[in-house]
Amino acid sequence: MYNFDYHIPTKIFFGEGQIVKLPAEIKAVAGKVLLVYGGGSIKRNGIYDTLMPLLKEAGLEVFELSGVEPNPRVTTVARGAQMCKEHGIEAVLAVGGGSTIDCTKVIAAASFYDGDPWDLVIRKAPVTNALPVFTVLTASATGSEMNAGAVISNIETNDKLGLSHPAMLPRASVLDPTYTYTTNKHQTAAGTADIMSHTLENYFSKADDFYLLDGMAEAMLKTCIKYGPMALKEPENYEARANLMWTSSLAINGSVRWGKADAWSVHSMEHQLSAYYDITHGDGLAILTPAWMHHILSEATLDRFVKYGVNVWGIDPALDKWEIAERSILMTQDYFVNRLGIPATLREVGIGEEHLQIMAEKASTPALQKDVYVPLFPEDVLAIYKRCLG
Length: 390
Ligand code: NZQ
Ligand code: ZN
Known about the structure:
Elements: E1 11-14, H1 22-27, E2 32-37, H2 41-44, H3 47-57, E3 61-65, H4 74-87, E4 91-96, H5 98-110, H6 118-121, E5 133-137, E6 149-154, E7 159-164, E8 172-175, H7 185-203, H8 211-233, H9 238-250, H10 266-277, H11 281-296, H12 302-313, H13 321-339, H14 356-363, H15 366-370, H16 378-389
Parallel strand pairs: 1-8, 2-3, 2-4, 4-5, 5-8
Antiparallel strand pairs: 6-7
Helix pairs in contact: 4-5, 7-8, 7-11, 8-9, 8-12, 10-11, 10-14, 11-13, 11-16, 12-13, 14-16
The protein binds 5,6-dihydroxy-NADP (NZQ) and zinc ion.
């Protein structure tokens, strides 16, 4: 296992009705707040109407930026940063899923930068500071509510890139499972696949001696396997929504990463799909994951797949090791496709052969070639993409 530093300063208010605690947290650091949200789901499901009076009662002056896109655009970040500068805004509040939260984090950082916010994303300029970030999570998926990362898209250049800075870590996040009741089947399924992918990216690691972390990751995967389909069937099942919500935060806040710390494989490949085709992140991950597993299964990785198959999928440990490994991959794919209802192939989400080569080259970053569980060069990524075409 690797050395690690542990520090998650995000205050979490988890459970029904906990939103009442948020305004005081914001008021402690700001008088003017920018409320950021997406395409309007928070108005349709009543979260907006609950929140606004609370913010006003706390004496906060509220500015609004709406229309954050799924796969948030840098142009929206620029609009938000401009508003912050113009109005002397002192804190930002994201109400939404990962896209809204990511956009808000980079708005917070770009408020301290005079140039194009894209410079921060491509590391042409460093993030130096950020306005205090607060979030109200409405979709269980990305874990952005409790980590320092953000992923931003530039449709002009077909780039979707991540950046991270401690100043972008939310100060406080409200996790009310009832707020996710209105996420539709597609979003619920894709979100569940995303949580599982975050967990799997850590589980398949060069550092395979951290027994505790493996057990935690296995529990998270089993939680998704159990509660994802339940949430699809009964959208207002509190137990299912609550389990998914807390797993979404834990899967990517470092809890199952520190001590492992390899770079991630499937996410790097997926971000190219979203960048070129604007597909839903969780769909891309669910399509790629079984193909990636097939590609990396070898004598060297066999024991890890056996552990995964036995502990997560309950496969009989007495079976031949290769059979367990192959079954574990089949069960993973069967779960995504038949229990979550996610498309099985790239063609089903509108992706053909046209950009595979360039996407493979862009996905195979130096990190993918050396810092991941099994290195992936452009030809490996291309083979994985082709296997997914269908
Ligand atoms: O825009 P609104 O109206 O809010 O509707 C959204 C959107 O259409 C809707 N939605 C969210 N909560 C809802 C709801 N609809 C009804 N009721 C609710 N309660 O769901 C749609 C998708 O929302 P989005 O925020 O895009 O989904 P998600 O949370 O999956 O976020 C995906 C983005 O996060 C990035 C992804 O790449 C993608 O850009 N990621 C961020 C990470 C991070 N910051 O750590 C890590 C992840 O791996 C991921 O890359
Ligand atoms: Zn993800």
